[in-house]
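Module 6 notes. Inverse folding takes a fixed backbone as the condition and produces residue identities as the prediction. Think of it as a translation problem where the source language is geometry and the target language is the twenty amino acids. Below is one complete input and output pair. Work through it position by position during the lab.
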């Protein structure tokens, strides 16, 4: 079987040790593994044909996601499924699906006029996220009316959420199928480049993680959790994250991809609230 990994450019330009190990494991099991970066290729969308048995989407760029959509329309099999990745990339759609699934997420609003949030910012600080943002890029915080007046919405939609204060560290949760792992690390603009410290996963966080996967139709994914005095809140979800700091991640990921390629695992995006609730029970 032929598997093609759709990768993102890495900075610095060095291969991911986890992915290298995943490739080696899959090749040792008889798979023909190839990879490429969409931005380094010249493709004609109208002539793009599915030539591999499985495409693994390991990139969050808009070009990669667009080409994945073309392949999906051609009948290609993708992991995670294209509709799941497309929904997860959109923070507005993700917030709605998670809330419908009973996942604890911050209260959320959308608007093109920050003036409509003046009364709200007096009640709670607000965090603004580009709806297609990734790795914390473009995030703005307003704690009062003066800071709100300086928030620039730009030309693309922005998701405004209640700002949840945590413990000063992010809880990064990683999921491979039914297996849930977690690491802790301080948040910064470059924290995604460093592994965290492995930590125990509480039953409450494990349940949150599995509900996220069921709601969004994901099998390889990660979520950022803020541990507030009230309860843990999911503040972001990513498909196929880096799994940095997760001991033994590569064999688990390779095994999951193998089972998906062979058809013994399946994923689908729930279409109704009833299906979402049933998947979470």
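Target side of the pair, the amino acids:
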């Amino acid at each position: 079987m032929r598997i093609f990994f759709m990768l993102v450019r890495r900075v610095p330009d060095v291969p991911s040790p986890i992915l290298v190990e995943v490739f080696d494991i899959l090749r040792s099991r008889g798979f023909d593994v190839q990879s490429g970066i969409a931005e380094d290729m010249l493709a004609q969308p109208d002539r793009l044909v599915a030539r591999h048995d499985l495409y693994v989407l390991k990139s969050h760029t808009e070009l990669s996601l667009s080409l994945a959509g073309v392949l999906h329309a051609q009948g290609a099999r993708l992991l995670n499924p294209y509709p799941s990745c497309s929904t997860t990339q959109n923070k507005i759609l993700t917030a709605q699906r998670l809330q419908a699934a009973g996942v604890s997420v911050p209260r959320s609003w959308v608007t093109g006029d920050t003036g409509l949030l003046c009364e709200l910012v007096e009640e709670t600080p607000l965090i603004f996220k580009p709806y297609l943002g990734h790795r914390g890029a473009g995030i703005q915080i307003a704690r009062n009316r003066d800071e709100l007046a300086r928030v620039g919405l730009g030309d693309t939609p922005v998701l405004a959420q209640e700002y949840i204060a945590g413990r000063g560290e992010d809880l990064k949760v990683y999921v491979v199928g039914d297996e849930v792992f977690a690491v802790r690390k301080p948040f910064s603009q470059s924290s995604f480049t460093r592994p965290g410290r492995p930590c125990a996963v509480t039953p409450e966080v494990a349940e949150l993680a599995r509900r996220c996967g069921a709601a969004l139709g994901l099998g390889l994914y990660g979520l950022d959790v803020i541990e507030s005095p009230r309860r843990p809140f999911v503040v972001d979800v990513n498909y196929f994250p880096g799994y940095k700091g997760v001991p033994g991640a590569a064999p688990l990921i390779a095994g999951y991809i193998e089972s998906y390629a062979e058809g013994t695992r399946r994923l689908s995006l729930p279409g109704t609230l009833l299906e979402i609730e049933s998947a979470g029970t």
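Reference fact for the lab report: Confidence is low (pLDDT under 50) at residues 272-281.
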